[in-house]
Amino acid sequence: MIHIDCKIRISANKHILPMKRSSGKDAGMGTNEYFSGNRELAAQLGCMTDSQNHGIVYRLPPEIRDNWLVDVHPKPGLILSNVYFTLSQPVSRVYDIEQPGLWLCSFARGDVTILEKGKKSKRLQPGIHLLVNQGQSFKITFGSSEPIWYTAAWIFSDFIAKYLKDREWEEPLTLADALSWPSHYYNTPELVMLFEQLKYGIRNTDKPLMYFEVKIMEILSAILSSVQFEGYSEKFFQKERPKYVTYQNKKFLWQVKTEIDKDILVPPSVKQLAAIAEMGTTKLRQLFKSYYGVTIDGYVRQEKMNYALRLLSHDDMSVQNISTFLGYGCPSRFTAAFKKIHGFTPQQFRKSLTL
Fold this sequence. Notes:
Layout: H1 33-36, H2 39-44, E1 48-52, E2 55-59, E3 68-75, E4 78-85, E5 91-95, E6 101-109, E7 112-116, E8 122-123, E9 127-133, E10 138-142, E11 148-156, H3 157-166, H4 175-179, H5 189-204, H6 209-237, H7 247-262, H8 270-277, H9 281-292, H10 296-312, H11 319-325, H12 331-342, H13 346-352
Antiparallel strand pairs: 1-2, 2-3, 3-4, 4-11, 5-10, 6-9, 6-11, 7-8, 7-10
């Protein structure tokens, strides 16, 4: 069964739970995301609240158009959010969440910076991001330089434990494990797709609550599959790799990937990346493919197509415009590249979202 490193508290209440602490902490200490989702952030932003189907919609002041923050609470310990807003000035919030859990975020656009104790501040780039909460406070700053778009899930440990226990499944998944996950375990086209599907269910708040619960477990299962495959690969194929990736190599490769992710449309040249990694271009190409399972050029193409998924999920750009924006000479080349990565065409993806 699942092993959780911290104390577990399971509430029998459903959906939106009352704003109260579940421990002996002094009143007023800590933040209540476990019980109320983004309610406190919404209050800080001056939002108005509206219940809608299975969710709660928070709207920023009316003078700021096309802004929302939507929460869905399918089960205690599971909170799903879709955010689409522009701020007139930066807002910072300190999170002090007692309950252990994972925050998975499919980040599409905006100026958002996370600062955890003992770590460098991290400005989010487009992609999937993971934060592991073990009771230490952290700060998120929401900037005002551009619109902020993301879909996120708080998946608390007691939700995972209860879900697996109720089904008598024995799957290894701990917070300690999640701390060691490299980003390529969860930064995959499959997870981007799952989050894009989840986004519209959250935004419209019209799906059965079971849909959200199952979709989150599908996301965790996809990550677990990556973890298990990596272990198999390490055990049986390490000797066959052209170059073994040392821990020091990995640190350089993480830096290389970070530089690529900063602007996937105009990534650094391989020569520039090799200088960052302090190695030759041939060695960098070998180690990158050995560690990430894809060439540098292949990774750039993959991430461009993940970016395309997010662009296609909004109907304000045509396929031809997206093709041009991503640097493809004609829509047919873009369609072929997109289908090679995702297995379906841009038009088919939009049709699946009824756009």
